[in-house]
Write a structure and sequence with these properties.
By secondary structure, the protein is of the alpha/beta class. It has ten helices and nine strands. The strands form two sheets. Strands 3-2-1-4-5 form a five-stranded mixed beta sheet, sandwiched between helices. A four-stranded mixed beta sheet has the order 8-7-6-9, with helices on both faces. Bound molecules: 5'-O-[(R)-(carboxyoxy)(hydroxy)phosphoryl]adenosine and zinc ion. The site of 5'-O-[(R)-(carboxyoxy)(hydroxy)phosphoryl]adenosine has 19 residues, from helix 5 and helix 6.
Amino acid sequence: MKILAIETSCDETACAVVKDGVNVLSNVVASQIEEHKLYGGVVPEIASRRHCENITGVCEAALEQARTTLTEIDAIAVTYAPGLIGALLVGVNFAKGLALSASCTKPNNIPLIPVHHIKGHIASNYISHPQLSPPFLSLVVSGGHTSIIHVKDYTEFEVIGSTLDDAAGEAFDKAARAMGLPYPGGIYIDRKARNGDTTAYKFPFPKTKNDFSFSGLKTAVINLIHNTKQGGVRTASQHEPLNLTDLAASFQHTVCSILAEKTIAANKNQLPIAVSGGVSANSCLRKMLPNAFFPELKYCGDNAAMIGCQAYYEFLAGNTICNSLNAFATMEL
Ligand code: KG4
Ligand code: ZN
């Protein structure tokens, strides 16, 4: 079964053709990062407009790279929640129009499969690791989400813990900004931390049970930078001037320790662990969870292949919709 998948929940316009869940025939991503970088974060209206401009070309490229045509596509999948509402609406409406036009050349209506963005991130590991199947414990760490999820089956989920404030990726991005690094900061902190001393700066661990909290850590980094700039309070352990390489390493090590420790503690039934989402690209997190499944780097950030993969399982579970599909900025798993 060939699924054409569309993802526009944030700042990547993405289309992919995926066969039978895990066989990725094409995976095209048009990133808007360079433009949003100018503003230090995603500007929602710019994101929507770029999706509008790019989606037709990205879709055509995905079909071409898969050496297929719309007439050979069996279903169309689209991310419908959660995300930036204006951005999601572009993908959803494009998918609806496409399904309608594809149906004109087919005897039966072509199914439209709505996919939850986080379920897509979870599914990215099925592509990279075909041996992985539910049940397993999933740690989803992205710019907007940080959750530990018990994946009972391909379409059955139980959230065990999530963040009470900032998402892990958001903490990376905000700390990076305070350090003067470009947006989105996760990868720049990862690079800067490479030769740093992870013990140079001490940060607090949140005292939450199953849930995460990163705002205290983020504020501690920001305060440390501001105080140092202003010649304020310093402790003997703090380098002078602030050593950004050590700071990046210490911050990253703290975030990843929190993520790894909480995930291992939540894994009461010793299930396989699978990590996904943009932050799953982080080299320190990968070292801290050596036995966990991680997607290939191209499937860590937002992409449509993961949406096409999850869509296959949604289709098998009967989760299709016709012409009434809407987009939602927030949506429970
Ligand atoms: O999954 P994603 O592409 O978009 C959302 O659904 O949010 O995740 C983006 C997040 C950003 O916060 C970015 O800084 C972070 O993933 N990220 C990283 C790394 N690469 C991307 N964080 C830490 N280390 C990385 N290597
Ligand atoms: Zn994402």
